[in-house]
Amino acid sequence: MGYYIIGGLIVLGLIWIIGLYNKLVRIRNQVKNAWSQIDVQLKRRHDLIPNLVEVVKDYMEYEQETLEKVVQARNMAIGAKGVGEVAQSENMLTGALKSLFAVVENYPDLKSNKNAMELQEELTSTENKISFARQYYNDSVMRLNNRIEIFPSNMIAGAFNFKREEFFEIPEAEKEVPKVNLR
How many separate helices (H) and strands (E) can be counted in the chain? Predict the structure, then answer.
């Protein structure tokens, strides 16, 4: 009789361990999926930028430096690896785009160009999607990191080598939504 009780407790313990492990795997996969969503939106952003530069370059004869900074920032963002490097390069790209949009204000013909307006609207929409994707990613990272640190799942996480994930953070100065007025 005692062997049955001990055997039952061992089976229950194994089921409990398997349950915790599976939960950690689900959350880790959720983090990977969330990062993929950010990646999709960043690719969309990167694809829109050359089109915008092409449309505005004819109007902005004296602003080539601004356009070059946007293109350089885009290229750095495309080549970035890892959450921290991607966040830093995307923040630089956001700053370069803000400068570009500020310069556009000085060109009335450009502000009335339909293609330029549509591309700016697409970029604004994409920025919103990136923001939502970052939020979802950071929420997922928080759930995973909490599970990795909280007892008793921290024992399972340590035993199976689960690692904390890095948040996609942006500097305080970049948290403000860029204001673009093309009218």
Answer: 6, 0
